[in-house]
Amino acid sequence: MSLASPSPAKIAVSVSGIEKAFGPTRALAGADLVVEAGEIVALMGANGAGKSTLVKILSGSISADAGTITLGGKTVSFASPSEAQAAGIATVHQATDQAGAAGLTVAENLTLNELCGTGNFFVSGRSIRKRAQEIAAAIDLDLPLDRDFIDLRPAERQLIAIARAVAAKASVLILDEPTSSLSSTEAERLFAVLRRLKASGIAILYISHRTGDLAAIADRAVVLRGGRVVASFARPIDFSAAVAAMIGRTLDASAHDGKPSSAPILASVKRAVLVPGARPFDLDLRSGEVVAITGTLGSGKSRLLRALFGLETLVEGGFTIDGKPWLSTGPSYSIVRGVFMVAEDRWASSLLPPEIPGATIAGTIALPHLPRWFPSGILNTTRERLAATQAISRLGIKARGPDDTLDQLSGGNQQKVVLARWQAAPCRLLLLDEPFQGVDVGARADLIAAIRGSQSGSATLIATSDTEEALEVADRILVMRDHSLYEADGSHGSLAAAIGSVEAAETGNVTS
Amino acid sequence: MTEQTATQARPTSSLAETARRYALFVLLALMLVGFWIAQPAFINSANLFSILQAVSVVAILGVGVSITMSAGGFDLSVGSVAASSVMAASYLMVVLQMNAIETMLLVLAMGALIGLANGLLIVRVGVPDLLATLATMFLLAGLQLIPTGGRSITAGMMLPDGTTALGAYDPAFLILGRARLFNTIPYPVIVMALVAVIAWFLMERTRWGRVFYAIGGNETAAHLAGAPTKAYRLWAYILSGTLASLGGLIVASRVGRGDVSAGNSLLLDAVAASLIGFAVLDKRRPHVLGTVLGAIFVGVLLNGLTMLNAPYYTQDFVKGVVLVGALALTFGLGKRKR
User: Fold this and answer.
1) How far are the Cα atoms of A213, A236, A314, A505 from residue A487, in angstroms, in the given order?
2) Is A3 among the domain residues?
3) Are residues A16 and A110 located together in one domain of the fold?
């Protein structure tokens, strides 16, 4: 755990005493971090620990309230992302659709910085291709240069962003959750590129909480919690200690005992095939159970939930609820029968813009229940405001009252409102897709309590790509891979071991 | 953090907010007083009711437009539907010799059917709202000319086959556009008021209105919350088509003939009324009260300017200025701090 202090000459970037507050929330409370040239440092931390705030400060998107950033021996401060880029800090964000411009080819995207900035006024297809080949060769990128950016896979888009960063002579490369949407072979390819960059002396800050990735590539792991660095681990990294530092307690897997439930089966999935060619799987949900499905983006978690809710159809197999076959024709069919779904990305899937009537807390909660609550058609605002007031106190929603619009609330409180919407009516099966997206730690605990507290006679199925979230909320965890379900080692020995077993299942070593 | 800024910003912004909320009411009052001072005849009740009568058709069409807008659509065909209704009403009475009741019911049904066709084109075929209703607009503008060979319809007219039309406008039909209740309130104003009250109640006080707005705000969210979004969008166009044909009936009963150029400027005036309505009460969304007030606002302005001898050809310019101002008020000055 003790670390030889790096020689000043080798330090590529260091931050010290960085503080940043958003209103009453202290996102960073004096964080210190050093990355040497030719070193890959893993930045770990739970949601809300301050990882993304630190990245945003380093990449110039926001400025720190206090503290200093030293880059190559000089103290710097960035007013904008372009200043950070010019100084040599390149950031590859999680959202890969922003890594380049749709409608332009790979070659044009690789040379985008030069096309937009310092290059010649006149460009020819040939000069672009020539320059693009040089840039691609620098990281061994092997992509058809004429392909449109929009047709690329997320992994390929990331590699383009990295190639551009290298071409811009970046000395520090920040990767924000780069593997969250990658398959294991794609991740391997990314790691090979990163090792090559490391050898050429670039400092890499790698944000992830997937221990599998970090074991493969990181020289050092730094753990953030509550806005400061709480631990640092040199290679070989002790991941169970790192996870414990991340969560702040040596959890023997939360409050759930992990004993198999013996309640009656409420819903089951039989021989389901989600996409043609996928392995069929079964799943039983017992009354009162909270089951989480983890797995990477695009592994089929959402598809299973959407199929249960009636938004997609199975290729083969079927569902039963209460012993009867279940085939929903769509949201209204499901909702009437007590099968509710909270889709991921609440702004796109659940919430209304603030100028719309019904965008208030009361209106948001009432929307799916309008036909049942107001059969005559005439609204009774007292009725919906009462439901909202109850939800506000029950879930601890921080708001002035039921008439606040959702854009005035923080992400966690918005998610509480969305959950309250579906707890406002009798439920058989609650489907939650990424319910903790953009939710801070405190609100997550409230949400988990609310999810687990309302479990009389209904079952909850949660899809989340975050293993810790799954462990915190669920009685039972399953892993979705290539559109099929696998059991993770069910016994909750310790949290770290459980995370390990889930991630082993994710990467394909189900034998462990 | 948004909570924080909202609570902090409230005391300072409340004055500006109040000003924005009532800006159009204040302007309307100022205008009334201004025109009154400049031209005392402006304020007598006959003139005020003539203003309301003049805007009634635009307001009724505008309500239809704002219902489709609230459901995330846009009905560009309202002007053509109204014009076609004028022709259809005339044809039914003058050529087919029907009475007032039959004519009104058939014309309203025609409007509803056109709305249904618009809706099906949009919901079933998947044509974008603006393009579908634009196509319907052209189609109707041409279709209404075909039965009479492009001529206006009057009693005793020569038909394309050489015979003379035997019917005439039913006197009962003309009551709608020409008579006044208690000899003061023109019937179109009463119809406008009824449409406004019913539509306002539907959109603001019932769950159906809530769902219309939810679909316009976030169709995915409305769908995932179990709302039959396609049926609602279909109904929005049916309502809009029916209201447009009601507007056409009023025009027909006022002019008493089937004029091929009737309803030329109705579409733009109705859309303008809806858009001006965004600024009323600072709602930033289409709403019935705003639309009616928007129509009245423009009507008062044009009437007053005409009384002050402003030339008729400045009218469109004036409407444009009001529209630009109202939209700037809604979207620019009123931008919420986030």
Assistant:
1) 21, 29, 21, 8
2) no
3) yes
The phi, psi pair for A42, rounded to 5°, reads -90, 130
What CATH number is attached to the domain comprising A263? Answer: 3.40.50.300
Short-list A316, A318, A332, A261, CA closest to A291: A261
Same domain, A434 and A457: yes
Instruction: Please answer whether residues A253 and A498 qualify as being in contact, where contact means their C-beta atoms are separated by less than 8 angstroms.
Output: yes
Q: What is the mean pLDDT of chain B?
A: 87
Contact predicate B56/B248, CB 8 Å:
no
Same domain, A327 and A418: no
Out of A331, A378, A409, name the one closest to residue B224 (CB).
Answer: A331
Phi, psi (degrees; rounded to nearest 5) at B38: -70, -35
Q: pLDDT tens, B147-174?
A: 888 888 888 788 777 788 888 888 889 9
Number of domains forming the structure of chain B: 1
Nearest CA in chain B to A26: B1
Whether residue A373 is contained in a domain is answered as: yes
Domain that holds residue B89: 21-333
ipTM over 0.85: no
Residues of B in contact with A355 (CB under 8 A): 217, 283-285
Domain that holds residue A320: 251-338+427-512
Picking from B3, B4, B224, the nearest residue to A343 by CB comes out as: B224
- Going from the first residue of chain A to its last (512 residues), give the mean pLDDT of each consecutive group of 10, the final group possibly shorter: 53 86 76 88 78 85 86 84 84 74 82 71 76 80 81 79 81 80 73 86 82 79 85 79 69 54 87 90 90 81 93 92 91 94 88 89 93 92 92 88 86 90 91 84 82 83 83 85 75 53 54 32
Which residues of chain B make contact with A25, given a CB cutoff of 8 A?
A: 1
Residues A368 and A287 in one domain: no
Residue B263: which CATH number? Answer: 1.10.3470.10
For residues B256-283, average pLDDT:
85
Domain contains B74: yes
Q: Are B204 and A357 a contacting pair, CB within 8 Å? A: yes
Domain check: are A172 and A314 in the same one?
no
- Kindly report the nearest CA distance between residue B210 and chain A, in angstroms: 6
Residue B210 to residue A370, Cβ atoms within 8 A: yes
Q: Which pTM does this prediction carry?
A: 0.78
SS3 category, A451: helix
Position B320 scores a pLDDT of: 85
